[in-house]
Amino acid sequence: MGTRLRFFFWLHPEWWTVGLASGAWGVMLQHAWQNSGHNGYHGSTLFPEIGYWMLMVAAMMLPLVTGRVRFTATVSLWARRHRAIAGFVVGYFGPWLALGIVFAPLRQMNWTHTYAAPALAFAAAALWQKTVVYKRALTACHRTWPIAPLGWRADRDCVRFGSFIGFACLRTCWPLMLACGFAGHSLVAMSGGMVIGFVEQSRYKRRRRYPTLAGRLAMAGLYTALAIRGVALPVTVTHLFN
To answer: Would you give per-residue pLDDT tens digits along the chain (242 residues)?
Structure first.
C-alpha cells in the first residue's frame, strides 16, 4: 500500500495543488453557510473581499490547470519539482490578484449586491465567448513554456509560465468569475462556473463551444429570474424550488 501511494504521488506531483483547491472550497462552503443565516449577502470590507476572491480563484481555477502544473513539474529536475509547482502557482495567482484588487471596490457599491449584477455578468460572459480575444486566450491556456533546469532562471521561468497561463485564463474567464463574485461567491454560481470551465477544457480540441455558451446563458437566465422575483442574496438551492 505504501509503495502504491508513493507511486501515486510520484506520478501526480500536482496533488497538493488539488488539495489547495479542496481547502479553498472548504472555506468557501463555510463562508456560504454563514451567509445563509442572514437575510441577504453581507459584503466584506476591501481586504477580506480580496481574500475571498483569491479563495474563489483557487477553488475554481486551480483544478482546471492541473495539466499545466504537471507539465511544470515533469520538465523540471526531480529535486525541484515542488519548488517549480510553487513558482507556477505564485505566477498564476498574480493576474487574478490584480483583477481582485479591481473587483473588491466594486463590491462596496450597492448595485453589485443585487441579482441583476451576476445576471448581466453571465450574459457578458456569453457574449465574450464569441470574441476573437476569447478564442485566442483559450488557445493560449494550452501552451507550454521552456523552463531552465537550474538556478534563478528556473524559478523565473516557472513564475513566468504561471503568470502567462494565469493571464490567459483571466482573459478567457474574467466575466464568468466576476459573475460568481457578484453572486456573493454563491455555491450555485461557483459550481455552475466550474462545470462550464471543465466542459470548456474538455471540448477545447473539438472546437465545439455551444454547450458552454448554453451554460452561460442558463446561468444568466437563472439570475435574471431571481432578480425579477426579488429574492434576497445569497441564493441557495431552496431558492430554486420555492
So the answer is: 567 766 666 667 888 898 999 999 999 888 777 665 444 445 567 788 899 999 999 999 999 999 899 999 998 888 889 999 999 999 999 999 999 999 999 888 888 888 999 999 999 999 999 899 998 998 898 888 889 988 889 999 999 999 999 999 999 999 999 999 998 888 889 988 888 988 887 766 555 667 788 889 989 999 999 888 765 555 444 444 33
Give the residue carrying C-alpha cell 472548504: 26
User: Dihedral through CA 12, CA 13, CA 14, CA 16, nearest 10?
Assistant: 110
The C-alpha cell of 108 is what?
462596496
Q: Which is nearest to 32 in space by CA: 13, 15, 16, 55?
A: 55
Rounded Cα–Cα distance for residues 62 and 145 (Å): 18
Q: How far is CA 231 from CA 15, 113, 236, in A?
A: 39, 11, 10
| Cβ-based neighbour number of residue 170 at 10 Å | 20
Count CB neighbours of 51 within 10 A. Answer: 14
Nearest to 61, CA basis, from 151, 169, 142: 169
Kindly list the domain boundaries of the chain, sorted by start residue: 16-240
